[in-house]
Amino acid sequence: MKNLIAYGEVFEAEKIVKSDTSIIGYIGNSEVFAFRGISDFSQFQLDKGQKWDIDEIERMRLDQAQANAELFEMMLMLTGGMSPNV
């Protein structure tokens, strides 16, 4: 379990996802706490050594972007537009 410290209170969840404007805690697939519309994250921190989780949709976007970049590099190499390891 992870611990989010916010406004002097501790919120516990298996997964704590931080986006540009929100922090949401989950146990399994259930949302157990949420802070939305955040503009100043200075009041929010995870316990020492803990890291924020990535939302599954964001993870899919990152994976797709990586796959697209690799495909683009491969196409450039095959067409002679780029040498490997550049």
Give the gist of this structure.
The chain has about 90 residues and is an alpha+beta fold.
Structure description:
With 86 residues, this protein is an alpha+beta fold. It has two domains: 53 residues, no CATH class; 32 residues. Helix content is 27%, strand content 35%. The protein has a three-stranded antiparallel beta sheet, with no helix packed on it. A three-stranded antiparallel beta sheet has the order 3-4-5, with no helix packed on it. Strand 3 and strand 4 form a beta hairpin. The radius of gyration is 19 Å and the shape is elongated. The N and C termini lie far apart (42 Å). The mean pLDDT is 89.
* Major sheet description: 3 strands, antiparallel
- The overall pLDDT, averaged over residues, is 89
Give me the strand/helix succession. EEEEEEH
- Uncertain spans: none
Strand residues, percent: 25-35%
Strands, count: 6
Strand order of the largest sheet: 2-1-6
Tally of separate helices: 1
Helix content: 25-40%
Gyration radius, in Å: 19 Å
List keywords for this structure.
86 residues, alpha+beta, 2 domains, 3-stranded antiparallel sheet, 6 strands, 27% helix, 35% strand
SSE blueprint:
Blueprint: E1 2-6, E2 9-13, E3 15-18, E4 22-27, E5 30-36, E6 44-46, H1 56-78
Antiparallel strand pairs: 1-2, 1-6, 3-4, 4-5
